[in-house]
Amino acid sequence: MATDPLPAYARIRYSMRAHYDAPTVHAILDAGLVGHLSFIADGRPMTVPLAYARDGACLYLHGASKTRFVKLCRDAAPLCLSVTILDGIVAARSAFHHSVNYRCAIVHGHARAVEDAAEHDHALQLITEHLLPGRYGEVRPMLPKERKATGVVALEIETASAKIRTGPPVDDEDDLTLGLWSGVVPVVTALGRGIADNHTPEGLPEPASLAAARRKFAE
Amino acid sequence: MATDPLPAYARIRYSMRAHYDAPTVHAILDAGLVGHLSFIADGRPMTVPLAYARDGACLYLHGASKTRFVKLCRDAAPLCLSVTILDGIVAARSAFHHSVNYRCAIVHGHARAVEDAAEHDHALQLITEHLLPGRYGEVRPMLPKERKATGVVALEIETASAKIRTGPPVDDEDDLTLGLWSGVVPVVTALGRGIADNHTPEGLPEPASLAAARRKFAE
Question: Where is the signal peptide (chains A, B) (predicted)?
Answer without folding.
Answer: none
